[in-house]
Amino acid sequence: VQSSPHDRGQTNFPANLGPMAQVAANTLHVLYLQRDGTVRAAGDSSVVSALPGGLSGVVAVACGFDHALALKNDGTVVAWGNNDYGQCNVPAGYQTSDVVAIVAGGYHNFAMGANGRVMGWGRNSNEQATLPQDLLNTRLAAIACGGYHTVVATVDGRRFRWGLTAPGGGAGANPLDGYVPDGDTVDVSAIDNFCLFLRTNTQVAASGNYASWQPAVTVPAGLDRVVKLSAGFDHFLALRGSPRPQITAPVVVSGALGASFGYQISASGSANNYWAMGLPPGLSVNASSGLISG
User: Fold this and answer.
1) 277 exposed, middle or buried (CB, 10 Å; 0-12, 13-18, 19+)?
2) Are 227 and 203 in contact (CB under 8 A)?
3) Does the pLDDT of residue 101 top 60, yes or no?
4) pTM of whole model > 0.90?
5) Using alpha carbons only, what angle is made at residue 134 by residues 130 and 138, rounded to the nearest 5 degrees?
6) Which three-class secondary structure state does DSSP give residue 94?
7) If pLDDT is split at 50, 70 and 90, which confidence band does 157 have?
């Protein structure tokens, strides 16, 4: 943990903190998702003071400037904290449908459904909560929200940014090619003036500064085996663990219309749970074996 000169207790670990599944941070607070599905908080903000009592069954958390999101194991999203820009008003479709990923920015959020649909809500003063038209049919590998901007990494290795002061200017998704280090990206974390990129080799790259997007953060030497990142205003957290599994089966398969279909997901490492999004009606995935059939 890198401490902050704006220390309000966000770098202090809560007492009796259990084994962690994820950490999420922003300017004045940190959320700790424990492996038992409960959430702990540290810092000084409404995210800490208004943490919903009895919150359980959580599989992911995300922090905004003064609000937070929790994704539960039933695919629903819970939001709490400051709601000046509607950032805690979860869209109706995501209160009952299967959500698989959530991210929070300064005052805006994005969520991805099991069908691959991405939706943003909250403050949209620079269109930071609106997915650009030129990315509507693009498969995303990772997405992160900064203060007034949003950053994504695509499945085919490209990275884009939109919102306030996007490199290159203009509307739509602005490519970050040439502004960030090369390499496949599996996770991104963003805040006002920098981004962290988690690569497939579990190492971290950093870029920042709205004007030049040159490195703005010194990544600690020897930081590896990272499985999750979270950026605060001028501090950040990295969760270390076993390298995440990588898909080794063919990523493109085909079948005959109207005929039965079977596809076995295989992965390196110690994968013990599988999921798939955007499956056509009639197909389902076995979470334990990784077999897609129908």
Assistant:
1) middle
2) no
3) yes
4) no
5) 95
6) helix
7) confident
